[in-house]
User: Fold this.
Amino acid sequence: MEGGRRMNGGWTRIAFNRFETSAGIATKRESLRGIEHVQSTRYDGIRLRRHTRPGTGAVPSVDRDPTNLRKERSQSHVHSSTTQDCWPTLKRKRGRAVDVGPIRAVPKAEELDEVTEQSMVEALRRLNGQDIHWQLKEADNLSLSYAVVLGKQEADFLFASLESSTQYYSGELTQIRVYGKWHPIPRKQVAYGDTGLTYRFSGITVPAKPWTPLLKALCDAVSHIACTEFNFVLINRYKDGNDRIGEHRDDEKDLDPAAPIASVSLGQPRDFVLRHQDSRKRQKARSIPHEPESANLLVSDREILNPFVSRMPPELEPVSQDPKPWKMLMGVTGITGAPDPRATEQEAQLFMDLLDGEYSIECNKQMVARWDYITDATEEHLEAMEEANVAYAEFKKSAWQNVTSSEFDNWETFSEPLRRRFQKLRVAGTSALPSEELLQFEGLLGEMENIYATAKICPFEESGNPDCTPTLPLEPALEEIMALSTNYDELAYVWEAWREVSGAKIRNQYVEYVSLLDQAAEINGFEDASAMWVAPYDSSSASEFQESIGSLWEEVRPLYLQLHAYVRNKLSELYPGQIGPTDPIPAHLLGNMWAQQWGNIASRMLPFPDAPDVDVTEEMLEQGYDAQRIFELSEEFFTSLGLLEMTETFWSQSMIEKPDDGRFHEALGDTLALSVGTPKHLQAVGLLGPDYEESYEADINFLFGTAMDKVAFLPFGYLIDLYRWKLFKGEITSENMNAGWWELRTGIQGLSPPVERTEEHFDPGAKYHVPANVPYVRYFVSFIVQFQFYEALCRAADEFDPDDPEKPLYKCDYYGNHDVGALLTEALSMGYSEPWAEAMELLTGQREMSAQSLLYYFQPLMEYLEQANLEAGNCLGWGDECLSTRKEIRQSFEEEAEEYLLYYEGEYSRRGNSNALAAWAYQTDITQENLENYVENSLELGAWLKAEWETNITSFPWEDLPEGSPSRRKFKFLSVLGAAAASAETYEELQRVQGEMETIYGTARVCPMAEPDCDLEESGLTLEPDLELILATSTDPEELLYVWDQWRAASGAKVRTLFQDYIRLSNEAAVANDPDGSLGIHDMGDIWLRNYDSETFKDDIAVLWENVKPLYEAVHAYTRAKLFEAYGPEHVDPEGPIPAHLLGNMWAQQWENIFPMVKPFDLEDTDITDELVEQGYDARRIFEVADEFFRDLGLMVVSDSFWENSMLTKPDDREVVCHASAWDFLDGQDFRIKMCTGVDMTDFITVHHEMGHIQYFLQYANLPVLFRDGANNGFHEAVGDTLSLSVSTPGHLYSLGLLSPEAANMSAEAQINFLLRRALEKVSFLPFGYVMDLYRWNIFNGSISDTDLNAAWWALREEYQGLQAGNERTEEMFDAGAKYHTIANVPYIRYFVAHILQFTFHKTLCIKAGQYDPDDPETNPLHLCDIAGSSEAGLAFEEMLRKGSSEPWPDVLEELTGERTISADAILEYFAPLTDFLESFLKERNIPIGWKIPTNGNTIGKKAPFEEKGNVLKPRNTLANSE
Ligand SMILES: [Zn+2]
Assistant:
């Protein structure tokens, strides 16, 4: 490389570190950081300020006194950091000028040939005594000291010596995990240090190698200079520009926060670049040049560097086993070789910042030229403007070429908002055209604009004179005529003549323009120009955006139709005989050249002509208002909001910062105008006289005037671009350019041309924005969104309250409200770097555009117009479709439904919230008082639910509501009440029976085997934890069978009679829900199945089971064979069902507890329990890890109140219900988890499961309360489990620092172990999850009779699970009742569904995250896929979660996965490697698959990691628990 000596390798960073002997721990997380090493030669705009020393003695010299240094030498080279004469002294002089002096290499160079390691060590020792010439770099609170500490020869020698002696890490330690992906570290790396030190970062633990003499000498030298005893060095070696280090944070707790940061650079020069972490200061990156061919030492105080951190998300905070902090010294050596053609993110950032600067300069030039022309349309200005346009376009093109060059082809990997800036700039528009076409294009634009700007017509009086001189320009002459004249013929003449001299004259140019624009679009990678135009709108596709605009229009169309009918009727009175009652309105009669806003004719047709009009124009003229005064008035409005400083940026940003997306600022400006225009405000500023009196009539007049501008505009704002989109797409061609225009004008606006139009004309060209190439739909959007903003600001100002008739939206004026000002300031300061939806959400709480606020605003007018049109017999619309205005009965019926639901949902939230709080109070503190409160509350809630159901819901003909409407869906939910629908007697009896069963279950005890006649109170064993622990850990078959049998005797057998009552009462209650049989409810099973909303659900589940059965049978056969080996033939029949007590679980529902006994390969387990304990994890930390996982996917994080209110560990001062559950308190903000979390792997996964429920709650919190539920119950259970599939991958656990590299890098055998363990947990569960409900469905519907309850249970257990009881079972017993969910009335099929669905979700998200390719399952197998950090996956998941239960679940599923049915494909794919293994294992050993049904029955069990509490009365969506 130029000027550099080519060494055999490049650029190395060396970091010395040290543990202090003191045991003090820095508890505060230190965020040292942010030195970035990049080649920065391209960014020559980055400069450092250099301070010069004033020639006074007042400032101590940096140069050291040699005498002092000699003294130091005689001492130990270990110095306290308070020593005055070393580096910290220099630091304290910061803020004063300090001389940098000449750069000198010290010590004096020796000949390179003669340098030996010994002499080098000597030289380094001598370094202590040498005169160091420090340079101080200061800027923006950054202060760095650096000095050249070695001459060329020494530096070269040191570098060469390090090259030959340094042993860099290899293998595992050369990989790093960033954003969920493994990357080779793009450099060589090694750490040396004092014995026993390790260093953790980015999930890697780096053991230090013992010092070499040379490194030790270097470390000592630097320690001396920096007055810090470093004890550790990290060496980074960069072979060339392809090697680098990304933005990173060195915020390990291990580092001593008091120690400075120091680094030594060797080799080829390469600059440091520091970037302030505050993004607003990011333009001010600082580079520290590295003197060529010498060794630089750089030292800075950690605190000073702190603000200079990167903005990357922090890596997992390392948990040190050694609490001693470190001191760190970093070093750098130089670079050779070719630079990486691709930019690092930092480089891209710098590039973008520079580009930003240039952009504003170039843009400004162009705007000045444009302004000159617009304000003074001379030939000269036109030329200058065209020139400026071309120059600007050329600049944009070169910027675009840079942005789209291969250098930045990794732009999609950049973090936000940088990625977004690239995304935006990758669309260059017409600037991307080749130069010739670009010139041609600009020429066309200039020509068209010029024709438009200079067009004039003859006055009406001379209209018959072919030789007249055209003298009337559009502004102001023609516009005034259009606004004020009532002469039908004059208006028609002006209307036509203007089109003759403007639009018709540019028709040919426009055809060419369209073709060039489409060409530019193609170069930019768009299908046509319409797609390019809507690209800035952040929609996933152009057609999607265009559709969303279309549906907004549909929302407001009914209002427009009312206005149109009213105005047409009034105009027909004003122009008798000219307009028929079903005609479109002639376009020239609406007070505007383009009929785009009709405000000019409003005063001629006020609804109440005698009531005051709020048009203040006259008053303004009278008071001598001029433009300046008007501006001051609006300025004053801003000031009143506390927005003084914002005004300037407000307007300038609206032009410059958001050139492509004007919606936001345009809408905001108009939003303010809505407030300014209220009568209240106009009175306040004296424009509305004291005689203006508020009245209904005045209000309607006011709203009418506003609607004539705002509502009349909407179809026009929509169709201008609709027309051009069609033109660009070729749906309208040069053959029918004018006819196509009028089709839209008539079809959408309901207007007709006053004179005949032909294809000689080009009427859209008579509107400025068309020849001027300005997209228009932004105005449409702005007109809708301004009302959304207005409503939000009015709510913030408390000037609008939907429940207070004194505060309607249209009267709201938030003048002087500082809350509004603060909200606006925040929104404005978001700038263009944030997606539109963010700003929108900040202001309104909504992410979508909606016309609801607008409709709300105009509601009184709408009601007035409906009545007026009805009375006048006006039809709505035009032509054949002109409809009668008779208000349809249907509509009022729908409104009634909505009104009722509004009431219902309000009450439901309130009562449900109170009930959930009572339940929470009881479950987290079991006292009699809390129980009574809860029961009382539940009874109240139940009474209310029942009363509403009886009196309002069942009597309402909701089935007549439109198919697919939200109201109908809600009523359908409500139409079935559940058990509470029964008579009070039956219901109370049912409650009692359930309560008794739960009590028996909850208090059941078993004597230990050694003491079978124990006192149960004294020494009886409880299910949790005693019996479960025995089942999980004992390998004594006698003990297992004893415990298994005794539990069933103590629980199930005792509730058999009660259970029979429960079935009978439940069915009575079920039928009460459907007295006339219209809902098809015959028993309680039908009610349970309604959640799945499908006629074929049972059959679908049966098919699913058939699909997974072969996998289950393989696992079953394998497990049986292993148990046979372990227990022998007296306990296990090698061809029969497995005895249920041998599977590690009371119900044999999940078998992972026996994994150690059956594991295929004798390898160490991947259990992280030990590591969690060792690293000091507690419950809170585990929940944080889960929360961070969601956050990194771009999903929501829990709020502070979650942490405050949840119960995450078992309290020791009171009794609580421990089983894990997630709670939604139905108020949209209170969500909690109750769990007695233990620090082990099972709970680690359970926490993710529960946090999945919370995430679902958070995502649908904004939906109506009746839709705040899972798409179906299985969805809810699958969310957390889906994420657990990623979280529990070895790669992910490794990235969390919970698995060693060895354990994480799984061999094929280890993967089989991993999969088998997973199968014992997930696959074993499937038949159990199925049988639990299959059994109960059959009891409810009578297929299983009371007399063979137990035999039927075992028949199913045998048939589906291949299990048998270990001893004889009889009809005295009731083994199904030994499982909590049976006696607690909790449907169970949701868990079966969830166990299948979670794999479907996992696979889908893995594909979205780019982590899994179904066509290549070998390279990155599904079971190792980790979606961590993928915003694509997060977004897709979020879309699903946000829908709650508002749509049928097949629709929701289809949107995410493309499939409408639940499929077993993904789970089979996931376990495919295990299937292969099991098949050959079984085949080789000739092990039979399946089981022979035995002659007599046996038993089974299981631990329920998560239990669901079933209370019929609780709001059905408050709780989401576990299986
Ligand atoms: Zn759950």
